[in-house]
Amino acid sequence: MRKILGSLRKADQMFDLIQDGDRVAVGVSGGKDSVLLLWALHIYATRFPEKNFSVVGITLKFGFDGMDFTPLEKFCNDKGIEYHAYDTGLRQVLEANADKEGRLPCSLCSKFKKALVIDYAKQHGCNKFAFGHHVDDAIETVFMNAIFNGKLATFVPKMYLDRDGMEMIRPFALVHEADIISVHERHDELPIVQSMCPMDKHTSREDVKHLLESIYKEYPQARHNFVNMLTNTDNVQLWPLEQFQLPSEVE
User: What pLDDT, on a 0 to 100 scale, did the predictor assign at position 249?
Assistant: First the structure.
């Protein structure tokens, strides 16, 4: 856990994520990343005297059968973490927008989740909301955008949303997934609510995750270099078309 907190603190210092007086809502799906983020931010808020902020966990219940959030609620009560869970009916909305093969629309789901977390965060007096995306997610997003969208881009650790008047932060921006897994293995009391979404582990992101693992196996140095790539903006070299006079026809 010390390594997680060290990475969180470094990200806060690098990206200026949290200020005194902040009230941060954490979107908690029940998965390993968001549950640990909620606990880590709670520790950061209560044990680091240089920071004066509060944390509240918010869970959106989609309505998928077999997902029990009672252990998560108990964990938060035991740790003194403010926590709220809300029934949303999102399952019915997603199923109504499924494609011909019955695949649920992940992009639509993401938009609904963010909008609802913002709404509930405001209800609880929060000025920021946090998601548990880690550095490996950021690298995967670079490759997903390159493969599927023809662009080089990833999410940022901090973004102010003008329309909502809220700031979105990602305190795990420097945390590796392997370290998250390691903490869960050492702390049995950390509850994980298994996702029952039929799209879980059957997405393009999962394919890219496996692709990257094969790259790391063949080229171990790539893991470190890909992390450096995220902030190495001074060395980006692409094709600036405005500097070239392209022929009108290609013979």
Answer: 57
